[in-house]
Write a structure and sequence with these properties.
By secondary structure, the protein is mainly α. About 75% of the residues lie in helices and about 0% in strands. The termini are far apart.
Length: about 100
């Protein structure tokens, strides 16, 4: 399927929407990570340790079959190439908020 024709005026509302949404979401996520960073890392680390301990005893907590099927169905190239303005503005806002926030 061919991409939509480009507007020569340079105004594309989809790009502006993605940039503004990405910057606001990046700022919010960065502030949440900085606020709850240590406790979040502690909880995730304890959860990983618990899952590994249970797996060593033969108790499967994570559905490995479903995860494997999901990973095969993921279009990695699409994840990389789609919504580029959102990802760039998200990353820039995340970095700026983590440095200055």
């Amino acid at each position: 399927m061919a991409p939509p024709p480009r507007d020569r005026s340079g105004y594309n509302p989809t790009v502006y929407r993605q940039v503004s949404t990405g910057s606001f979401v990046g700022l919010a996520v960065s502030l949440c990570v900085s606020r709850f960073g240590k406790s979040l890392c502690l909880i995730l680390g304890a959860l990983m340790l618990l899952v590994e301990t249970l797996a060593r005893q033969g108790i499967d907590v994570l559905p490995a079959g479903k995860i494997k099927r999901w990973a095969e169905e993921v279009d990695v190239r699409g994840l990389i190439l789609k919504n580029t303005p959102f990802k760039i503005s998200f990353g820039a806002a995340f970095i700026m908020a983590s440095i200055y926030g």
